[in-house]
Amino acid sequence: MKRLISFAVMLLTAVVMVACSSPIKSETSRKNGLNCAFESSVNITIDKLNAEGILKRFGDGVWDIEFSSPNTLSGVKLEFDSGNVSASYKGLDFSVPQSALPVKALMLNLIETIDENARLEELKGIEKDNVLEISGSLEGGEYVLSVGKDGKPVSFDMENNKLKVIFSDFKEIQSVTESTTTSVMTIIETSTEETTMSNPAEVIEIPEQNAEEVVEIPESQEVVEYSESEETVEIIEQDAEQTIEIPEEY
After folding, report:
1. Are 146 and 131 in contact (CB under 8 A)?
2. What's the whole-number average pLDDT of the chain?
3. How many contiguous H segments (helices) and E segments (strands) does the chain have?
4. CA distance 109 to 106
5. What is the tens place of the pLDDT at every residue in 10-65?
């Protein structure tokens, strides 16, 4: 009995010591640096496939990636717009090639992960090696998105699917909304300037012509009326003289 009790005590002590030696991971938060349009070089690993390219995010659901390697993908560009995917090569559109299907699946998972986290006020995860690891799950499997101190993406892992993306040379770019707004404002300003330059000349010339006509007509009328009044005065004066001279002769 004493041996059983001693064994139980030793076992309990060992469990407590192991528990104390294991670090307690607590969740921390970090500012969200995902909610922006950006461009980044990426190194993609999918099982035995390794690819490189330039990844761009223009807004929620609007992405594209252009590959520089391997040779089977070099020059191929995949564009993603709200779940729709299109492929092109040097400006020529075609269906997504067989060699790009694994990358397409990876990109759909990456896009869903970043867009979903970009909508949050702040990012929450586990601090590890100066990065914040954000864990989650998708239909394609579980993932770990790592972000730096500025909240920008560092890596994306789906270990069970042997998928990994490493980000480098990250920089912010103009979003689709900003670009569209700038174009619309430019068109409006150009149209307004053209209208302003053409209409004022017409508006100014017409009143000036009318004003001259209105002024000239009264002036001619005044001259006629004045000449008539002078003639009337002369006739009255002549009559007055004749009326006075007749009584003197008698």
Report:
1. yes
2. 76
3. 3, 12
4. 5
5. 666 655 454 454 455 678 999 999 999 999 999 999 998 999 999 999 999 999 99
Q: What is the C-alpha separation between 77 and 67, in angstroms, rounded?
A: 6
Separation between Cα atoms, residue 149 and residue 130, nearest integer Å = 7
Cis peptide before 97 (omega within 30 of 0): no
Number of Cα atoms under 13 Å in the Cβ half of residue 153: 32
Each residue's pLDDT tens digit, 64-75:
999 999 999 999
* CA–CA distance, 154 with 147 (Å, rounded to integer): 5
Q: Which of 94, 76, 154, 140 is nearest to 65 (CA)?
A: 76
Measure the CA angle with vertex 102, ends 98 and 107; round to 5°: 125
Other Cβ atoms less than 10 A from the Cβ of 125: the count is 21
CB atoms inside a 10 Å sphere around CB 165? 24
Rounded CA-CA distance 120/124 in Å is 9
Residue type, 3: R
Q: Which of helix, strand or coil describes residue 36?
A: coil
Residue 239 has phi, psi (to 5 degrees) of -60, -40
Q: What is the pLDDT of residues 133-187, one digit of tens each?
A: 999 999 989 999 999 999 999 999 999 999 999 999 999 998 865 544 444 444 4
C-alpha angle 214-219-222 in degrees, rounded to nearest 5:
130
Type of residue at 106 = L
**Which has more confidence, 117 or 199?**
117
- Coil/strand/helix, residue 11: helix
